[in-house]
Write a structure and sequence with these properties.
Helices cover 16% and strands 37% of the residues. The chain has 650 residues and is an alpha+beta fold. It has a domain at 24-278: Purple Acid Phosphatase, chain A, domain 2.
C-alpha cells in the first residue's frame, strides 16, 4: 500500500511541475539479518528506526535485502513488526538469506510485505527494485524471470529522459548470473545509478559503465558501529554519508561523505524539459529500443546452438517459460510427456518429442517441488500448502492433500504410496490413489526440501534441522536418525537427494563433506572431504559421484566398508555451489552447474567428454531418457531436450 500511495503522489507532483530544488534524502539500509535466536540484530534495527524517525529531512527508506538471517516465517514476522514502527514510507527487497532457506518457498515474504519488487517516482527520479534469488537453491544470484518481465513492463512506462535508480540485493556484476540481461533492460531508459547490499561494506564501482554503490550492513563490525547510509540527491549530485547510530540519540552522528556521483543530466533540468505529454505517457520508440535486445537474444541462441554442435550436442527443442523453474523437469518416456512447474505456481506438460504445450494447471503458490510421475499420474507439492495429484494426460486435479505449511520438498512414489516432507515439521505417506493419509511423522527438526530415497526396506530424507531420517515404508516407524556431529544449519543434509547402494546411504552436506551411512543402523561408515549438496549414483550402483565446490568431481566405490576413490578429476567448472543431482547414461556422467553449463565426463576414468552452455542460471537436473538424450530444466525458466554423441565431439 505504501508504494501505491507514494507513486500516486509522486506522479501528481510530476504532472503539476512541483519544484524539486530542495532535493531528496533517503535512508539506505542493508543486511539487517534479523535472527530469531538472538535479539541483538533486532535491537540494532530498532535503534536505526528511532534515529530515522527523528530526522525530518529523510523522505523515505529503502531496505536492500538480507532482512532476515534464515528467511523463516518467525524472522520475517519479527522484521515486519519492527519496520511497522517506521514513520517514513519504506520499500523492501529480499536477499539470498531471505530466499535460499525459506521454509515457505518465499511466499511469507510476499504475503507479509505485499510485494517482491517496487517502483515509485520521487522528485522526478524513478526508483525500481527487484528481488533476487537464489530462490530455494544454492546458486549465483538471479533476477527471476517473472521479475524481468515485470521490469520490462515498468520501464516501458517511464519517460526516456527520466533518471532511473535501480536497487537489488546483489550488485549487477558476475555475482548475478543474468546481470547482462538486467542491464540490457535498464539501458532502454536513463539508468543513472544502481544500489545494492550483500557485501556488508561501502564501495563505489561501475558496472558496464553504470555508476554503482555497494552499501554497508546495518550491523556493527570490527571497525564500525551499527548504522546505515544517508543518500542525498540535489540537482543531479548524489552524495553518500554513513550515519552511525547509538542507543542514546544525542550520541549518534553522521560521517563526512564517502562517495558522490553526478547524474549525466540533472533531474531538475530533465523535469524542466519534459513536455506535458512525456510527463504523462511513456516515451515513443520504446518498442524500437527493445529490438537490439531481441536481436542480441537471437544471436545468443544461434551461438549456443553452434557451441553445442561443436561439442557433439544438439538442442532438439527448447522453450522459455514466463517464470523461473526451481526444480527438475521430468519425462515419462512411455507416454512421451514432460512435466515441469514454475515459480508462478503452474504445473505444465509438453510433448517429449517436440516440446509443444499439452496442458497447464495452476496452483496458488510458487512451486519448487520436482514432479514425480507414476501410472499416468503426476504428484507434486506447492507452497500453497497442498500436495497435488494430477492426471498425466490432461492436467486435471484428481486430489489434493492439505499440509500445515508450504511444501518445497519433492515427492517419491513407490508401491502406490507418495512420500513427501513439509515445512510444518512433518513427513507424510499418502495413498497415491485417493490422497488419504497413511502415516505421518510430526517431529521433524527444521523444514524439508529434498526428494526422499525410497525402497521396500526404508525411506530416507534429510531436513534443515541437521538430521537425516530413516522410516519404515509401511508404518512410518523411525528406524534411525542420523545427526551430523557438527551442529547448525550449515551442516544439514537437507538439499541433497540421498542415494543408496551396497547397503549404504550416501549424502553430502554444505560443510563440504560426503558421508557413507550404514543403511540398517544409521551409523557413519566413512566420510570424505569435498562435496556440498550435489551427489549421484552410477547406473549399476557401483560408484557414487560427488561434485565439490573446489572444481573437483569424485567417484567413490560404493561396495567397500572403507572409503575407496575410483578417480578424482578437475571438473573445469571452477567454484561451484549448485546442489543439482548427478546422473549417468551411456557411460557418461552428467554434472549440472550453477552457472548454466552442463558437463559430461567418462565414467571409466573421469575424463571430460564435453560441456555445453544452456542458460544463464542454475541447471536443475539432466534426466536421462534413453537414446542418448536428456531432458534438462534451468532456473531461468528453460526446458530443453538435448541429444549427444556417446563418444563426445567429433
Amino acid at each position: 500500500m505504501k508504494i501505491r500511495i507514494l507513486s500516486v503522489l509522486a506522479a501528481c507532483c510530476l504532472m503539476c511541475g512541483c519544484n524539486t530544488d530542495s532535493g531528496t534524502s533517503f535512508a539506505l539500509i542493508a543486511d539487517t539479518h534479523i535472527n530469531s535466536n538472538s535479539s541483538a540484530n533486532s535491537e540494532v534495527l530498532l535503534t536505526i528506526i528511532r534515529d530515522i524517525n527523528s530526522r525530518d529531512s529523510i523522505d523515505f527508506v529503502i531496505l536492500a535485502g538480507d532482512v532476515t538471517e534464515f528467511g523463516s516465517d518467525l524472522e520475517i514476522e519479527l522484521a515486519r513488526n519492527l519496520l511497522d514502527s517506521l514513520q517514513k514510507p519504506w520499500y523492501i527487497l529480499s536477499g539470498n538469506h531471505d530466499s535460499k532457506w525459506s521454509e515457505s518457498g518465499c511466499n511469507t515474504f510476499l504475503e507479509t510485505f505485499g510485494y517482491e519488487q517496487f517502483y515509485f517516482v520521487h522528485n522526478h527520479i524513478a526508483y525500481i527494485g527487484t528481488n533476487s534469488g537464489p530462490n530455494m537453491r544454492m546458486a549465483p544470484a538471479l533476477v527471476p524471470r517473472e521479475s524481468l518481465v515485470w521490469l520490462d513492463s515498468v520501464l516501458r512506462t517511464i519517460p526516456a529522459r527520466m533518471p532511473v535508480v535501480y536497487v537489488n540485493h546483489y550488485p549487477l556484476t558476475e555475482d548475478m548470473s543474468n546481470y547482462r540481461k538486467v542491464i540490457e533492460l535498464l539501458s532502454t531508459r536513463n539508468i543513472q545509478l544502481t544500489l545494492c547490499g550483500h557485501y556488508h561494506t561501502n564501495e563505489a564501482f561501475t558496472t558496464l559503465g553504470i555508476p554503482a554503490v555497494k552499501c554497508r550492513t546495518a550491523l556493527p563490525g570490527k571497525t564500525q558501529g551499527p548504522g546505515y547510509n544517508l543518500v542525498n540527491i540535489h540537482k543531479g549530485k548524489v552524495t553518500f554519508r554513513e550515519r552511525i547510530v547509538r542507543k542514546q540519540p544525542d550520541s549518534s552522528y553522521t560521517l563526512p561523505a564517502w562517495h558522490s556521483v553526478t547524474f549525466t543530466k540533472g533531474p531538475s533540468q530533465i523535469a524542466d524539459t519534459l513536455t506535458a505529454e512525456e510527463k504523462q505517457q511513456p516515451a515513443q520508440g520504446a518498442a524500437k529500443k527493445q529490438q537490439p535486445a531481441q536481436a542480441a537474444a537471437k544471436k545468443q541462441g544461434a551461438a549456443e546452438k553452434q557451441a553445442a554442435a561443436e561439442n557433439g550436442v544438439e538442442v532438439l527443442w527448447s522453450l522459455q517459460d514466463e517464470g523461473d523453474i526451481g526444480s527438475a523437469a521430468m519425462a515419462d518416456t512411455l507416454s512421451g510427456i514432460v512435466v515441469f512447474a514454475n515459480t508462478k505456481g503452474i504445473v505444465k506438460a509438453v510433448g517429449l518429442e517436440d516440446g509443444k504445450a499439452l496442458w497447464s494447471t495452476p496452483t496458488r503458490g510458487k512451486i519448487f517441488s520436482t514432479p514425480a510421475i507414476d501410472k499416468d499420474r503426476v504428484f507434486i507439492g506447492s507452497t500453497d500448502k497442498n500436495v497435488y495429484c494430477l492426471d498425466l494426460h490432461s492436467g486435471r486435479i484428481i486430489w489434493t492433500y492439505p499440509a500445515g505449511k508450504s511444501i518445497v520438498a519433492s515427492p517419491a512414489v513407490m508401491d502406490g504410496i507418495v512420500y513427501i516432507g513439509g515445512s510444518d515439521g512433518t513427513f507424510r505417506a499418502l495413498d497415491a490413489a485417493n490422497g488419504s493419509l497413511l502415516w505421518e511423522y510430526p517431529h521433524i527438526s527444521g523444514f524439508m526440501e529434498s526428494k526422499p530415497y525410497a525402497d521396500p526396506s526404508q525411506v530416507v530424507a534429510g531436513s534443515w534441522g541437521n538430521e537425516l531420517y530413516s522410516f519404515h515404508p509401511k508404518t512410518g516407524a523411525i528406524q534411525w536418525v542420523w545427526e551430523n556431529r557438527h551442529r547448525g544449519r550449515g551442516y544439514s543434509p537437507a538439499a541433497t537427494w540421498p542415494v543408496k547402494a551396497n547397503g549404504k546411504i550416501f549424502i553430502t552436506t554444505p560443510e563440504r563433506k560426503c558421508y557413507a551411512i550404514d543403511a540398517r543402523t544409521g551409523k557413519t561408515m566413512w566420510e570424505a572431504l569435498g562435496g556440498r549438496e550435489s551427489i549421484g549414483l552410477s547406473e549399476d550402483g557401483q560408484l557414487v559421484y560427488v561434485k565439490t565446490m573446489s572444481d573437483s568431481l569424485y567417484a567413490f566405490q560404493t561396495a567397500p566398508q572403507k572409503i575407496v576413490s575410483q578417480w578424482r578429476v578437475s571438473g573445469g567448472f571452477g567454484y561451484e555451489i549448485g546442489p543439482s543431482p548427478v546422473t549417468e547414461q551411456d557411460g557418461l556422467v552428467f554434472v549440472p552447474s550453477a552457472t548454466g553449463s552442463l558437463y559430461a565426463y567418462h565414467r571409466q576414468d573421469g575424463s571430460k567428454a564435453w560441456q555445453v552452455l544452456l542458460s544463464d542460471g542454475l541447471v536443475n537436473y539432466a534426466q536421462p531418457t534413453g537414446h542418448s538424450r536428456l531432458v534438462v530444466s534451468t532456473m531461468d525458466g528453460r526446458v530443453l531436450l538435448i541429444s549427444y554423441k556417446k563418444d563426445g565431439p567429433g
